[in-house]
Design brief:
Elements (H helix, E strand, L loop, with lengths): L9 E5 L4 H16 L3 E4 L3 H6 L1 E2 L5 E2 L17 H24 L5 E7 L4 H8 L3 E6 L3 H11 L11 E2 L7 E2 L5 H4 L5 H8 L10 E4 L7 H8 L4 E3 L21 E2 L5 H9 L6 E5 L8 H14 L2 E5 L10 H5 L5 E4 L4 H6 L3 E6 L3 H10 L3 E3 L6 H11 L3 E3 L10 H12 L2 H21 L4 H15 L1
Parallel strand pairs: 1-2, 1-5, 2-4, 5-6, 6-9, 9-10, 12-13, 12-15, 13-14, 15-16, 16-17
Antiparallel strand pairs: 3-11, 7-8
Helix pairs in contact: 3-4, 10-15, 13-16, 15-16
The structure holds uridine-5'-diphosphate.
């Protein structure tokens, strides 16, 4: 797999400091390293000091975001954080590039998370080729593009929206920042600004695969030179061609593997519901209680990830439950869990990584989107790929225990569940084909590497 002359080509990868953004970019770095390139990942200094990092073949160097001691959590205002990150991060990124220039292994290319368009300017200043890395689905990116270019006017007038390359969408399928136009303006601006200067980037990389989003990818490819490079998940779960690539290798959270793996090992095939809402979502206490009661009354085993910061919302009903069918953990190796034969379905918030990981491992989903792009992902996994069901909210916006129980039973026990399982298996095969030797994403990565070597 190694390309001749590759080791002289040094790539710098610059992720947003959040688990869901670091994972796919780091994984892509490993793919480049396995082709012989020299690769440096530059998360924030705070992350290099506080995360659990175990990566081979990718060097990790910290960049200052202006909050080296506490990171993003040190400051309550995302507005202040992002503004400071832009100013301090630009300087720190420039310093790293400059330092490297005199080392004998200067950077040739900067791959930056598309949410930081300012990084492109830094890369250009030093004559690096630049690649904008999109960590969300192409469908979601297409919505943001349409809004940014004024092709979809906001606030959106319902009840449905028709856009090229996309199925007809109900307004509540749109990403929350678009549907609830006034919500989280700082994040809305950030997702729209991905398109601020992307036409100046030499490459546009996206963590998806051709067959998964064929129509919208075709449409977007007429606008930008997109290369699909996904699923960007550890190789052991797909093509197994990257040596020792069993885990993402950088975790912002701590987990105790032996507890839940031993617990899973005791369960029958397909008998466990895995429940997780990712690294950021926060649920209300009432919602937590409904989830707990729905899971308990479904009478299936469940493994539920509740982050330390959410722990205080866990309902009493869980501790009082005598069936002892549930296990709550603060964090886990999600891919290892999804790949475990005991897992029968995934109750998920539909973050894009969770979605594409579940697709890659053929696990049917119960979609419980919370915000941002999760509503779009839910729409696709239910109606386009047909690998899951979606919960319905009541008039208060809560998903009730009966609804959860109904969805669990539909997937774990019903005829619809059988069909969904067959579809999930089919998508798993297609995901592997895409990244395996000669697949669409594999070819795109080869082309990207070849182009860097010639540059
Ligand atoms: N994840 C994990 N362990 C957990 C929960 C999540 O390793 O207990 C990982 C998951 O595999 C995924 C990432 O955290 O790669 C979450 O990303 P996603 O886009 O799904 O959601 P976000 O956290 O960005 O909302």
């Amino acid at each position: 797999m190694k390309e001749e002359g590759a080791e002289e080509t040094h790539v710098l990868a610059f992720p947003i400091p959040s688990q869901g953004h670091i994972n796919p970019l780091l994984q892509f770095c490993k793919r480049l390293a396995s082709r012989g390139l020299k690769v440096t990942l530059a998360p924030t200094i705070f992350i290099t000091k506080s995360a659990h990092i175990e990566v081979n073949n990718v060097r990790v160097e910290g960049i200052s975001d202006g909050f080296d001691e506490g990171g993003m959590d040190a400051i309550k205002s995302p507005e202040v954080y992002f503004e400071r990150f832009k100013v301090v991060g630009s300087e720190s990124l420039a310093e790293l590039i400059e330092r490297q220039q005199s080392s004998g292994y200067p950077f040739k290319c900067l791959i930056y998370d598309s949410h930081m368009p300012w990084a492109l300017e830094v890369g250009k200043r030093f004559g690096l080729s630049t690649a904008s890395f999109f960590t969300q689905s192409c469908a979601t990116d297409a919505i943001y593009y349409n809004v940014k270019k004024g092709l979809l006017s906001t606030p959106v007038q319902g009840p449905t929206v028709s856009l090229p390359g996309l199925p007809v969408l109900e307004t509540h399928d749109l990403p929350s920042f678009v549907y609830y136009w006034g919500s989280y303006p700082i994040f809305r601006d950030s997702v729209l600004n991905q398109f601020q200067n992307v036409e100046q980037a030499d490459y546009v990389l996206i963590n998806t695969f051709d067959k998964l989003e064929d129509e919208v990818l075709k449409w977007m490819s007429n606008i930008y030179p997109i290369k699909t490079i996904g699923p960007s998940v550890p190789s052991i779960y797909l093509d197994k061609r990257v040596e020792d690539d069993k885990d993402y290798g950088l975790s912002l959270f701590e987990s105790r593997k032996e507890t839940y793996m031993d617990w899973l090992n005791m369960r029958e095939a397909g008998s466990v519901i895995y429940v997780s809402f990712g690294s950021l979502s926060e649920l209300g206490e009432e919602q937590m209680e409904e989830i707990a009661l729905g899971l308990i009354s479904s009478n299936h085993y469940f493994l539920w990830v509740v982050r330390k910061s959410e722990e205080n919302k866990l309902p009493k009903s869980l501790a009082e439950d005598k069936s002892e069918k549930g296990l709550v953990v603060a964090w886990c190796s999600q891919l290892e869990v999804l790949a475990h034969k005991a897992v029968g379905c995934f109750l998920t918030h539909c973050g894009w990584n969770s979605t594409i990981e579940s697709v890659s491992l053929g696990v049917p989903m119960i979609a419980m989107p919370q915000w941002t792009d999760q509503t779009m992902n839910a729409k696709f996994l239910v109606d386009v790929w047909e690998i899951g069901v979606r919960v319905e909210l009541d008039e208060k916006g809560i998903i009730r225990r009966k609804e959860i129980e109904k969805c669990v039973k539909e997937i774990m026990e019903g005829d619809r569940g059988e069909k969904i399982k067959r579809n999930a298996f089919r998508w798993k095969v297609l995901a592997k084909e895409a990244i395996d030797e000669g697949g669409s994403s594999d070819k795109n990565i080869d082309e990207f590497v070849a182009s860097l070597l010639c540059a």
